[in-house]
Design goal:
Helix content is about 0%, strand content about 80%. It is mainly β.
Length: about 100
């Protein structure tokens, strides 16, 4: 499975991201958030072992940038956008450490 994937692809508001799955458990990730146009927004990650039940270990914040994420071993991750105010887009790319 991929070590890099796009969870949000130029979404224009609140959205649940596409799930990115891995062959082996991962614990360290880089998440790149690129947001333009919104007057305010927030993003968070959700992680899962089974791919069905997701948990939110932490929010990612309300600014474009690259965030380091450490979690317990997981097989699935996604990024969500919420509290989007104004008009714009958000893209989120996740990279897992080998």
């Amino acid at each position: 499975m991929a070590l890099v994937g796009k969870s949000l692809d130029a979404v224009t508001g609140d959205a649940t991201g596409t799930v990115i799955s891995f062959d082996t458990p991962k614990t360290k990730f880089g998440v790149q958030i690129d947001a333009t146009g919104f007057t305010s927004f927030a993003t968070n990650i959700e992680v899962s072992i089974d791919g069905v039940t997701f948990y939110n270990p932490r929010g990612l914040g309300d600014a474009s940038g690259i965030y380091n994420v450490d979690t317990a071993p997981i097989l699935h991750i996604r990024v969500n956008s919420y509290y989007c105010v104004g008009e714009g887009t958000i893209t989120a790319i996740v990279a897992a450490k080998e």
